[in-house]
């Protein structure tokens, strides 16, 4: 029982360390068209970014894109919480791969 408790505490510490280590990058992130490239619909995900809009990006770059967007609005001092529609929060936002570019239906990525 004691070994199980120690293992649980070690796992909790490891997870907390991983969360604490994520900080904003010191260097500005440079925008990349690669963030929006895809080979199939399974590559794409729609995210709500710091501009308070849904953008379709390659899921492998979603965190980099969101960090870039956050840096952009912070640089002009306009970072503010986004209003969220409760019904929209419950529904997944679709993202598709069209012509090797992730897109949110009805909108195109940058």
Describe the secondary-structure layout.
Blueprint: H1 2-20, E1 44-48, E2 54-58, H2 62-75, H3 86-90, E3 96-98, E4 101-104, E5 107-108
Antiparallel strand pairs: 1-2, 3-4, 4-5
End-to-end distance, in Å?
Answer: 54 Å
**Mean pLDDT over the residues:** 77
Question: H/E order of the elements?
Answer: HEEHHEEE
Largest sheet at a glance?
3 strands, antiparallel
Find the count of extended strands (DSSP E, 2+ residues).
5
SSE class: alpha+beta
Total helical segments: 3
Apparent shape: flat
Sheet-strand content, in percent, reads 15-25%
Sheet with most strands: strand arrangement? 3-4-5
Low-pLDDT segments? 3-9, 17-21
Q: State the share of residues found in helices, binned by percent.
A: 25-40%
The whole-angstrom Rg is 18 Å
Keywords: Signal
Protein name: Lipoprotein
Organism: Woeseia oceani
3D architecture notes:
The protein is flat, with a radius of gyration of 18 Å. The chain is an alpha+beta fold and about 110 residues long. Strands 3-4-5 form a three-stranded antiparallel β-sheet, with no helix packed on it. It has a domain at about 35-105. The protein has helices spanning about 1-20, 60-75, 85-90, and strands at about 45-50, 55-60, 95-100, 100-105, 105-110.
Summarize the structure.
The protein has a domain at 33-103.
Task: Give short descriptive properties of this protein.
alpha+beta; 110 residues
